[in-house]
Structures are given as C-alpha cells and as structure tokens.
Amino acid sequence: MMLRLEPRGERAALWVYGAPALALVCTVLITGAIFAILGAPPVKAIETFLLSPLDTLAGVASVLVRSAPLILIGIGLALCYRASVWNIGADGQFTVGAITGGGIALNFPHAPFALLYPAVLVAGIAGGMAYAAIVALLKLRFNASEILTSLMLTYIAQLLLVWLVTGPWRDPHGFGFPQSAMFPDAATTPDVFPGTGIHLGCLLAPLLALLVWLLMTRSTLGFQLRVLGAAPRAARYGGFSQARLTWIALLVSGGLSGLAGIIEVTGPIGQLTTSITPGYGFTAVIVAFLGRLHPVGVIFAGLLLALSYRGGDAAQISLGMPNAVTGIFQGILLFCLLGADVLILYRVRLRRRARLAPVAATERAS
Amino acid sequence: MAGDREVAFEAEAPAGREPGTGPLLSLAGIVKQFPGCRANDGIDLEIAEHEIHALLGENGAGKSTLVKILYGVLRADEGEIRWRGRPVAFSSPAAARERGIGMVFQHFSLFDSLTVAENIALGLDQPESRRGLGNRIAEISARYGLPLDPHRVVHDLSVGERQRIEIMRCLLQNPKLLIMDEPTSVLTPQEVERLFATLRRLAAEGCAILYISHKLEEVRALCSRATILRLGRVVGRCAPAEKSARELAEMMINARLQPQNFAHRAAREQPARLEIAGLSQRSAHTFGTTLTDISLRVAGGEIVGIAGIAGNGQAELMETLTGEQLSPQAETIRLDGAAVGRLGPRERRRRGGAFLPEERNGHGAVGTMSLAENAYLSGAVRKGLQRLGFVDRGRTREFALEIIAGFDVRTTGPDAEARALSGGNLQKFLVGREVLQNPGILVLNQPTWGVDAGAAAAIYTAIAALARAGAAVLVISQDLDEILMLCDRIAVLAAGRLSAPMPVGEATIEHIGLLMGGSAAPSPARDAQAAQGGTAR
Amino acid sequence: MSVAGGGILVSIVSASTPLLLAASGELVAEKSGVLNLGVEGMMLIGAIAGFATAHVTASAPLGVLAAAAAGAAISMIFAVLTLALLTNQIATGLALTIFGHGFAALLGARFVGIAAPTLQRLPLPLLADIPYLGPVLFDQTALGYASFAILGAIAWFLARTHAGLTLRAVGDNHDAAHAIGHPVRAIRYGAIGFGGAMAGMGGAYLSLFYSPLWSQDLTAGRGWIALALVVFSAWRPLWLLVGAYLFGGITFLSLYLQGFGVAIPSPFISMLPYVGTVAVLVLISRDRRRIRLNQPACLGQPFHAAA
Fold first, then answer.
1. Which domain does A101 fall in, by range?
2. Chain B residue with minimal CA distance to A347?
3. pLDDT tens, residue by residue, C165-181
C-alpha cells in the first residue's frame, strides 16, 4: 500500500486550520501510546499531562507565565521563517538579552523604577538584537549559514552566562551558588494581578503578537518579507533588498527574544542563574510552526506548549515519569504538524494498483 | 466507443507504410485524467518501422502526456499499448527502454555538475565499464555526426551539445523507437539541419522516430506521417508533405487563422526611450553568460525583438534591464534619457519602466500569493498602491480587478492564488499588470512561453496597442516566429553579444540563424571598427 | 594526561572520531540532496541505545550495533516525513533533534550514574609500536578503525561506483534522475538511513568510549558541528578527515588548557569548539562560488514526482 499525493492546485482553507487540530489529536494518541509502553495508564497520564495543570487557578496562571517567553520568541521566529531566514538560535538571543538587561539591573541597584525598568528592558532588547546582528552580518557579509551560526552562538551565550554567574557577577552572599544577586525591586517586572505571578510580559506578548500581525499583513514591509520567503527571485524583481529584509527579520526576532529573556529573569526568576531557559528558544520553533507562522496563531500555540511544560512537571510529580516527556511531546507535535500540513496542498490517496488497467483493456479487446 | 472515434477522425489514409508489415507500436484508446483536465481522451496511434511520425499539437493538446505514458513515466487510466502486436504495459522508463524505446525530452535530464560520460552512464540501465563505454561513445559519435567530448562537465556545454548527450544516451541502447519531444526549440537553424540528418540516417537504418512538435515547417520537411492532437483527442492524420503549413495549423487549432496584422510602425525617427550603451557585465550566476558590449536604442512607438537561443545571456540582460542586477555604470542604461544603470527596480519603474521576466511562478509572480498581492508586487510604485508604509488594500484590489476585466483573465477573483491559474491566464494577468501601468518602456522576456494560442493573441494585441500609443517595447524571445510577426526590428543575442539590429522586413532566416550560432559575418559597425583598428596598426 | 607528542595526537584522534562518524553519514545524505538537521538528535539516540544495550548485554560491540540500528530507525521518521509527506527539511530536522533530545533523556533516565562496558582499544600488532604514528593510527577501538574504513569506502563509493554516481546525480538534479528512471526516493531513504546509522555510531563512541557514562547533554552540540564539517569539507569525503582533526585539535586544546590551569576562565575555553565552528564556517562560506560549485544543487529541496 503506497500513499500518493495529488496536488490540489490551491491551498485547502479547511486544512490550514484543520491540520494543527489533526496534529494535536495524533500527538495525543502517540504520546498516550508511549505512556502505555512506559507502564503508565495512558488516559490518566494524558489527563495529568494536558488537563491537570488547568485544574487550579494557580496552574492556569503558571501556564500563562510560561507562555509569555514562548509567544514573544515565537512571533519573532514566525516573522523570520516567513521570510525564509532560519534563525534557530533564539535561545542564545534570549540569554544575551537576559545578560545585557540583567547587567544594567545589577549595576544600578538604587535607580528609581521609572528609569531603571525601561532601561533594563531596552538593554535586553538591544542585547538580543546585537546577538542576532552577528548572525545577520555573518550571513550577508560572509554567506555563512544562519542555521549553524545562530546555533553555535547559542552554546557560546550559555557559556558566557555561566562565566558571569560563576565569576564577576556571582552573588557574594549566595553561598557560592552559581547565581547573581537578586535584582532590585526597581528592576522587577511588575505583576498585573498581584499574587498570581501573572506579570506584565503575559500582557505584552499577545499585544506584540497583534502588532506583528498588523505589520505582516498590512504593511509594505510585511509584504516584502512574505514575498522574500515565498519567492526570493520575485522579491528581487519587486525591488526589495534581500539584505535589508534579512537584517530586519533577524533584528526583530533577536529583539523579541532578548525581550523575552530580560522579562523572564526580571520576572519569574528574579536573578541570573545558569539555567534561565529550559530551551524556550527551541520550543518556540515549534510554537511558530504550530501557530502557522502567524502571530495570532502563535498565541494559541504558545499557550499549548506552555501547558506541555507544566504537564511534564505534573507527570513527574504525580506519575513519577521523567519530565523529558515534555520534549517528546513537543517533538512529536512538530512531526505530526509538519506531516499534517501536507493536506493543505495535496490530496492523499492510497495508490491503486494501476497495472490492472491495461490488463482489463486487453481483456475487453480480445 | 474508441472504435467509433477512430473512424470519425481517420481523415487520411495512412501513407508511407509498406503493406504487410504490422506496426511497430500501436496505441488504442489511451485515456489519462488529471485533476480538472482530461489530458488524453481516447487516443489511437500507430507507428511503423523506418517511419518518422509527427505528433503535432498546440501546448496543452496532450502530446507530452501521451509520450510520457508511452515511455513509462506516467500510466494510462485506460487503453492499450501494443509493441510488435503484443499488449505491453510499461511500468517505468527502464521497462520502456528494455523494449527498445528511447526518449529525448524537451527539458533535458542532465546533471550539470557531472561529466558527459557520467551523464551518459547514468542513462544506461546496465552499468558498463568506463573504457567500453568510451569506445562506444566514440563509435556512435563518428557514425551519426554527434561530436562530444566525454570528459567535459555539462554546465560548460551549449544547448546543442547537451541535446547530443541525450541522443547519445538513447542510441547506446540500440532503440527501435526514438521519441523526440520538441527537439528543435533550442537549436539554431543550422543545428536543426544537422539533427535532421542524424534522424534521417537513423530512420533509414530501421529506427522509428516519433517527432513531437508544433513547428509546422519542420514537420513538413522531416516527417512521413503526422497525427494531430487537440485537447487530448486525435483530430486528424495526414502525410504532412502533402499539406500546407496553413492547413496543418488549422487542424491543430481548429479555427481559421486570422492573418495577424500588427502593422509595422515606422517610428525610428522618434527619440530613443530605452537606450543601452556599451553594457558589459559578468553574470551573477555560477554558470551564467557574460554580457559584452551591448548597445541598443528603442524608440517610442517601436517594438524591437531580441532573438537567440536560451542561455546566451537573455536572463542576464533581462536582470540588468529590470534592475535586479545593477550594471557597473549608470550611463549604460537610460530610460527616457535618465541614466538608471545603478538604480533598483522600483526607481526604474518610477521613471517609466515596466518589466516582465520569463519565469512566471516565483519570479514575475508569487504562486502562493493572491492575484491582488501579485498586482501589488510590481504595480505598487506606478499605481500608487502604498500609503504611509501600508498596503492600500482597496486600490490594490481595484487594480487587480481592472487587470482581470481588461485582459479577460479566467479566475474566481482577485483573492485567487496565482498558481491556481492556468499558464495562459496567469501570463495574461501579468502582461496586463505591466501594460495597465501605462509604462513608457516595456521589456518582456518570452512573453508567450507555454501559453495557448488564444492568450498569445491577446498578449500580442496588448503589446502592439501599447507601442502604438507611444511606448518603447523590447521583446526578448526564443520564438523566432513571434519576433518576426510582432516586431519592427530584430537583433540577435549570441554568447552574450548583441548583433546590430535590422528591420524585420530585411532579415532572412539564414542570416538570423547564422547570427544565433554566433558565426555570422561581422556587422557593418564591427567592420568599421576593425578597419579603424587596421589603420591604427 | 600525557603531553608527549603521540599522546596529544591520540587525544585529537579520539575527539575527532565521533565527529567523523556523524559527518560521514551526513555527507552521504547531503550528497543525495537531503539536508538532515537532526544529526544531534540521532547521535543522542545512538548514544543512549548503545549505552543501554551495552549495559544490558554486557557487550560494548553489541551496543555499537544497537546504536547504528537506533540511529537508522529514528532517521526514518525524518525520511518518511520529508520524502513521503514533503515536509520542510529544515523544520523536520529540527523536530528530529528536539524529539531525539527528549526521547534519549526519557530512555536514559534509568541509566544516569551507572556504568556500562566500554569499547576496548585494539592495538594492531607491530604497527602500534611504531613511534608516534603507531599509537595515533594503530591503537584505536574497532569503531575508530571503522571510521577510517567507512570514510575510505564512502570516498570510493561516491567517486568510483555506478551506485555512487547515481546518488550524486539524485542530489544534483532529482527531476532529471527521476525522468531517466532512477528511484529518487528509495535512494534518499537509503542515504538518510545510512546517515542515521553513522550518527548513531558517533553517539555510541561518545557513550561507550569517549566519556563512558550517560548524561542528557552528552553530545554538547557535536551533531551541529558535524553539520558544519560537511560544509567545511565542501562535500568532499577526504576533507572531512581534515576538518574532523581540526576540531579534534580544538577540543583537545580546550581540555589541555583546562588541565593545566591556564588563567582563562573555563567557560571561555569550553567555547572554543563553537567559536572555531563559526570561524571555519565564515572562512569557508566566504567563497560563494566554491560553495555553489560543490553543493549538491537539490540540497534541501522537496521532491515531488509529477504524477
């Protein structure tokens, strides 16, 4: 039995939205099967993984908090990938944003909030941008693959952070732990609903998503980025500079990743440590694709994947499963999503035994 | 049913076939359905040994589909193939080759980064030793007049040489039937003669040849029988030598040909609107052609054609004219007197230019975007479709609707994706997009490539009307007939050099052919230069 | 750590072997026109499969076989998605790395902190006694020898055999190859599977010899460096050897510097391989023409046989 793909000629509107749903269903089934193999009752495990985090208000709040960095990074990546700029080093830009913003926060502990907090945010954004700018420079000036350079820079950023929190920025009162001092209150991301942990970033992320959506769909810049991604030669024909657009895509996504980084360390974490990201930059790749490379889709995708982090924690606590389950769920989700996308452009048919046709014709003739 | 049809369409008695010999190959009732299109609708065809059989039809008539079925690339939904009287089913090209069928595709199946010998080896089903293969290549080269250096890398070869590799591949299999799909569309007239000599020699030795073409004169000169297809059906059979090209054409397109009359405009007194002066430029592409000292003036009201075989610098010239590739000096290209050589596409459009490249999907248009967005792609500047950094969606939509209505584009509306349109419809849309910007200078590359006759006629009419209204039009085309019919003057691009333009009325096919091959006598201008050089020395 | 000349070279060769294994496999896949960014994930899967098998069966060689099988098996997810369902190769490769990371961590949760049998050095009689050269070249593990042999075999296969020619042709122009009747997809399944098996063995070399314990981040980006090596080699097998030793040298240098307490903070020393990769990529990629001439023309492009 073979699958055969027939081009539809046009994209099927149904599957543009149906594919993520189908992918989610498949992912749940496959993950359930893996749970079963690991000896956990699959239905209970899935429930623990995907639903139990939403049982309590605190759970919902923590999903929201987790979703903020994913959405912020995800909208930047969606913009990049629309333009076929393959930035996969968002984790590094996130880290550098946290470092540059955190540096300001640690060095001006007595500045007032109105001055310090905006400066910290701007420094975080600038750090992420600058780090992404290295990728842009290497790609445009030296033709080096942005996939590989952005990834290598992620390892470098992580090591840089390790050096800072074990060396110059280590908290002298921190009992030798590899972490900085806590940030001053004036450099702390404020909570929107006090006591819940839902901070300013959770509000900012969807707002920025809407802004980027407007940019991508309505502005000439967004149009140019989309043309570049869909057909680079058409972009040149249109007179759109590939170099300029690549710079913009990388700077925007680097800036958003940097913003995510600085919000994360000035919000939920409160200081610099060696583990400020559980791979948000990579999970955001999935967020971007699951959200159809569409800023609004990214909001929903970010919430779902934030849930998978919480679900991993829940599965670890109540079922004793390793929290690597989260990574598996995310990987399978991306596999299923990419696979389901084929339905948008193609009809899938089972291959008929075409050899029968001529034989039948022969019989008729004789 | 298939039988009825055959009787109905068997217009002519088969000629040129010896009685008593059964056909080498016969097809009966071949049907192939594609989504939304019945490409082959009950086709019958017979080919005998020694015969050069033409399969004649327009683009989209189903010729390519039929031969792909015959060669095992596609499978028929219905129908029967008999080889020497026995029913066969070719499940793959290899199976077809095993029976002795060879095919030279219109788009060569060659590997640019590999050598001639490697390319040939890849086309063989039984791996051969390198030395043995080398000897056989040399032998066939000599016998059929197909000179080839086995050690050269394909990307350095001319189109004619590339075709020889394809033919060589087939001949090494000792074919009984050789299928040639539009073999001359990329050859100079001289190379065509040479190919015909090879084919005649093969036929004389007993190999049958199925020759697919829409070029009527060639078919009349070469083929003993012809089967004519239209819209997936056989609409006639004849001995082409006994018919006039006009009669064949009428069978092919089923409409009395209106003699196209694009009255030639004598507009050379007008000032030049497009000027190319001493343009020399290295190609930006790895295997591209360097442009050398190209000069040309196109006056308002005039249509100038640039003929030439693909790969002689057309793509490079087009990119330099659109501004996708900047030329080294600003003065080498002028639009209405303004030096624009260093300006990008948008600036050139602002100064009156409009351009349409050869490739529709992915260059002139974005297949995955809507028609409205594609209208915006090149129309934004001249039609004022942007406002404060935002796309004016209302006006963009109006512009798209205007194109659709003005150029009879068959589509569901401005929101349809470009790739959902047929080739002809999309090309009408794109030509309309450029023409309706009312440019002073219009440059088109292959304006009717892969377009049906109806759409081509509409495109020609629009181009001619624009010229009549005073625009300068430059048409780069590999279709010589198109240039001869549409243009006032013609120049030939060969190996990156442009010949001196001449009035179409004074041009002979032979002369153009020699120019296309890059071996014509130097133009008068060059003579003068040479003479000067001589005196200086 | 011995600082004698031979000792340094031995360390360099050891550090380069996993890169060489993984990069050789990726080179074959890329030659067929497939860009598989999942090398890191496949190495991790190979590492844990090898380690677990060696632990359970008490046989390191069986572990290597299991690693190859696991790498090939996991690569088939990528193959089916990109070849049958025409998914974007970049995104699918990333998904493979993310999935491999998680899956290896899940499988490996029970193996953290325990030991497994390791691969043994097999000095070749006499040859291993040659001063300097002997310990470097002729005192390897079986997998180390195999890495040389396989690389040589790949070079021969690609340059000299009809099958190798066909594979290169598929990477150069898949439409033409299909039109002539070569089974494009079958060839790519094979190339991807081979790449997976090689990456798996590269992972096993790490978990069974180089740092013979299981940890979640065992590969530390080596899969990505292997990808960069393929670019560095400009898709020529023997240049992989040069590239792998270069990186082996860098890795060794960082170990050496740390071992001798040079006054550079250790995170900076650990950055060396990554900085080196970026530097090498920049140097190599600068020559656009050379890259374009050597890169398989269909690299990363989806192939859909016109129905």
1. 3-356
2. B35
3. 999 999 999 998 988 88
